[in-house]
Amino acid sequence: MEIWLNPACSKCRTAVGELDASGKEYVVRRYLEQPPTVAELEDVLARLGLEPWDITRTADAARLGVTLPAKDAAHRHAWLEAMVDQPRLIQRPIITATDGTTVIGRDPASVARVIDAG
C-alpha cells in the first residue's frame, strides 16, 4: 500500500492514523518533495476513473498563480503537466492498495475501502 501525502494536511494525518490502526504496511510518498510523473498521474486517474480536473485543488491554483486550462480532452495533458509542475494542485491523500484499489482518502469510508482491499 502507498499513500501520497502532505504531512501538513490534517486529512493526510487522519488517513495515516487509520492506516496505522489497521496494522497494514504502507509506504509514504511525500508528493510535494517527490512529485508524480505524468505517467504516474495517468495510472492513478485510470484506477480512480477520474479526469485530472477531478483531483485538482482548483482553489490552490489561484494562490499559486496557475491558470488552469479548459476541462476537456484537448487540454487534458496540460492539466497533467500543471499538476507535475505544481504538485500542491493534487488532491490529497491518494492511497493505493496492493491490489490496485485507489482512493482519495479524505473521508473515513474511502480510507476503510482501501484498507479492506489490502
From TrEMBL:
PROSITE patterns: ARSC. SUPFAM superfamilies: Thioredoxin-like. Pfam families: ArsC. It comes from the Bacteria. This is Arsenate reductase. It comes from Nocardioides silvaticus. Gene3D superfamilies: Glutaredoxin. Belongs to the ArsC family.
